Amino acid sequence: MAGKSDPTRILILGGGYVGMYTALQLQKKLGRQEASVTVVDPQPHMTYQPFLPEAAAGSVEPRHVVAPLRRVLKRCHVVTAAVTEIKHDEKVVTVENPQTGSENLAYDVLVVALGSVSRLLPIPGLAEEGISLKTVGEATYLRNHVLGKMDAAANTDDPELRNRLLTFTFVGGGFAGVEALAELEDMARYATRYYNNIKPDDMSWALVEAAGRVMPEVSEKMGVYVVKALEERGIKVYLNTFLKSVEGGHAVLSDGTEFDTDTLVWNAGVKANPVLKNSDLPLDERGRVRASAHLQVEGLPGVWAAGDCAAVPDLSKTEENPGATCAPSAQHAVRQANQLAKNLLASLRGKQTKEYRHAYAGSVAGMGLYKGVADVYGFKAKGFIAWFMHRSYHVSRMPTFNRKMRIIIDWTLAFLFKREVVSMGQIQNPRAAFERAAAS
User: Could you tell me which residue ranges the FAD/NAD(P)-binding domain spans (predicted)?
Assistant: First the structure.
């Protein structure tokens, strides 16, 4: 335990939106003798997830959608490790790095910002066949995977094999699923100009959504427009339909549709980081940390939580729905981080904290190059204007001037010199050539 003259030890679990932005605010406003800040995350960077579909499509360099934690948080101590256990009774967190083993980190103030992971359902074959789009590694993999399937299809005359290779299935019609599908389809459509035996119509793209509409974050009218826009591009949209199984790459849908596919991208929701179950923090029925509107964990002074892993009351909806909590979105995470940092500083200095209250501003989404939808403060747009609003908003939210400029330069170069459609499949298995050489 820190002595009276020692700086308060602030431990932030997670280096995503909430963790990095909270630490960034704290390092700007805390005196060196006032507190020390330690950030723990398995990755040495924060990933700006709204740009992952563009990274997968080649519009943005994957390295430019991540912010290096050590570069951004120069006055913080960054620990590259995964949290394995939280013992608040002892004020100790156990972390583990595969290279260096485990260690215990003590703290005086704890910020829980562990985010979320993909929510998988018990669907036969899903764990073996599926991939999500939540990390820069997955974005890079998907890009090479799609182009690799096109390369393979160009080399075979077997019609069944070609159909399987060129069938791309996406499950989940929220923002993540629609943007990933639209960007990758746009990239693949562009790439067909370099194949003399693959046309856009040879490819089959499908979106499977269990609800009766897509993108619930926008108005119902805009959701209908999105479906029509996708179908006009030849993309099959299955609403009120769920994936029953995908064993061996054979997809079976609840409406009886069956087809073979070598690509299944899963974006059907998220859940709070499961490591929270290995803690003594109060959790709700969905495994999220129970927090007040002040972003303090219920009943635990000195413990704060925000983002996807926290059940924070949504004060903009409590009148119509008293139990409403904030949705897991980047918009909430960034703004909660700002309020959390202010409240934590106020608490340390004996001042009053404030509730997190956020009026919904709206949503923007990209649907490929020069295509998008937007519903912001009642203003609805589609096509080029919405696409421009989407890019403008997200580049403004990207941390650091360095990363903003790199992304803008990527976009400028892509506009001048068109898309890069090169598959670097060796990245998927970088030791393959070495192993073949060793065996020869």
Answer: 9-336
